[in-house]
Amino acid sequence: MANKEKHHPEIHTVSIGGATFDLFLTMGPELTVRNGEVLLKVGGKLPVKQVIESTGGGACNTAVGFARLGFKASFCGIVGSDQWGEKLLKNLIAEGVDVSPATIVENETSSFSIILTLPGGDRTILYTPGANEHLDHATFDLETVKHADAVFLNHLSGNSSALEDDIIKTLVDNPKIWLSWNPGGPQIRNGMRSGDEAALLKVTNLLLLNKEEALGFTGEKGTAGALAALLKAGARNVCITDGQNGVVASDGQHTYSCPILPVQVIETTGAGDAFGTGASYALLTGFGLPEALVAGTLNSASVVSAVGAEAGLLTETQIRERMLNRPLTVETIS
């Protein structure tokens, strides 16, 4: 693989979606986990091994990820006029992200999460959407999107789903704008054949779903069927992640399989955002889909090796060095 090391400030990315202030509580063995459920005794008291403050949310994570990878990155989301919103914006600015498209809602609480990090890296999240529920036509900076080279559309809440009409029209009117799309719960429930979702698929360059989401979105019973349906619907590249089984992806010409990178998992929040950012970066800078799977997997592996959604995000120098020196074997399966 040739080394194409350079920054790409000429590529302007806009991340649309949520920003969340995260409080990570690292739990010890005293916390009971049984049959996939966390058991907390009413009136009980449990020790916490470590408390870490961090920033997260899909748009926040992908904006920081793109900035570290050398792009001109903008955050198009919403925060409250509180200490959490102030910290979210301060972190974005420190990472080199343009926050001028962001909206601050007065007298509103920013989205906030308490994340119980369980032994083994799994987690349970307690959250309030807060100000993220106000991301709608009135607060959305559509002009920034119109002048972007690439858009990363993250999970949207129910209220924010109304933005899809504006985004679709902008992308249809400006076909040169790249779209990476990671659908959220409302979009998955609507299904790929509903009006807005079907229209978005037609302008999507990179679609990112986990296996459960892909099957729910398409109504298919297996990954192969989901890939075929999504490609037929118009998505140019489709990636379906499946936890420890890695990722399967297709560009309509070939289908590829990429394994995970064996690492010690500390905490898994933000793994999907890291994968999507790394894969988008590779495709936007001239690599093919197999290399994009490697870049996404390396970025994701780095994130789960640290606490928080952003601490482990790779820089462009780091991701290119790892692509060269620690390649994963991507298999062409069809």
Word description of this protein:
With 334 residues, the protein is of the alpha/beta class. It has one domain (8-35, 45-332): Ribokinase (UDP-N-acetylmuramoyl-L-alanine:D-glutamate ligase, 3-Layer(aba) Sandwich). The protein has 11 helices and 17 strands. The strands form 4 sheets. Strands 6-1-11-12-13-14-15-16-17 form a 9-stranded mixed β-sheet, sandwiched between helices. Strands 5-2-9-10 form a 4-stranded mixed β-sheet. Strands 3-4 form a two-stranded antiparallel ribbon. Helix 7 (211-218) packs across helix 8 and helix 10 (289-304) packs across helix 11. It starts with 7 loop residues before the first strand and ends with a strand.
Short note summarizing the structure:
By secondary structure, the chain is an alpha/beta fold.
Mean pLDDT: 91
CATH homologous superfamily - what is it? Ribokinase
Number of strands: 17
What is the CA-atom radius of gyration, in angstroms? 19 Å
Provide the fold topology:
Layout: E1 8-16, E2 20-27, E3 32-34, E4 37-39, E5 48-56, H1 58-68, E6 71-76, E7 78-80, H2 83-94, E8 103-105, E9 112-117, E10 123-128, H3 142-146, E11 150-153, H4 164-173, E12 178-181, H5 185-190, H6 195-202, E13 206-210, H7 211-218, H8 223-232, E14 237-241, E15 247-250, E16 255-258, H9 271-284, H10 289-304, H11 316-325, E17 331-332
Parallel strand pairs: 1-6, 1-11, 2-9, 7-8, 11-12, 12-13, 13-14
Antiparallel strand pairs: 2-5, 3-4, 9-10, 14-15, 15-16, 16-17
Helix pairs in contact: 1-9, 4-6, 7-8, 9-10, 10-11
